[in-house]
């Protein structure tokens, strides 16, 4: 079954992402399905909105060899991060930090100004109610599961 939602005739936006799971050493390519409308009333559903809804399992199609894919339901508690494949050009960071994850990976990330209104400190940004927090890593949006973060070191601006 290539498109799990086609049988229901639900129109979705296919979004290519890389997902790092707790049982993998490197991220795997997946397609997630975003709604055409956001509950916030602008544009389509964002990846951050999609990850922080009240569902425990994330429906995806995992890309396999030779262009094939298979439906996979992923437990969000086992996701380290979801990385958007869209490249950003010169993002403007409000704050920078290094995240150390439970698997030992260190991510140098930035908080983009437009997403940090009202958060004067990194600790404020980390303590939002959402399970997944959006950062920028290597000029791509990355949505990190707070349950997988061991420590955060704020990097002072030069």
Describe the structure.
The protein has 158 residues and is mostly beta strands. The chain has two domains: 6-83, no CATH class; 86-155, Roll (SH3 type barrels), CATH 2.30.30. The chain contains two helices and ten strands, in the order ββαβββββαβββ. It starts with 12 loop residues before the first strand and ends with a strand.
Which short descriptors sum up this protein?
mainly beta; SH3 type barrels; globular; 10 strands; seven-stranded antiparallel beta sheet; 158 residues
- Shape designation: globular
How would you sum up the major sheet?
Answer: 7 strands, antiparallel
The fraction of residues assigned to DSSP E strands is over 45%
Number of structural domains: 2
Lay out the secondary structure.
Layout: E1 13-21, E2 28-34, H1 47-51, E3 57-63, E4 69-75, E5 79-87, E6 93-101, E7 106-112, H2 122-126, E8 132-137, E9 140-145, E10 149-155
Antiparallel strand pairs: 1-2, 1-5, 2-3, 3-4, 5-9, 6-7, 6-10, 8-9
What does this entry show, briefly?
The protein is mainly β. 6% of the residues lie in helices and 47% in strands. The chain has helices spanning 47-51, 122-126; strands spanning 13-21, 28-34, 57-63, 69-75, 79-87, 93-101, 106-112, 132-137, 140-145, 149-155.
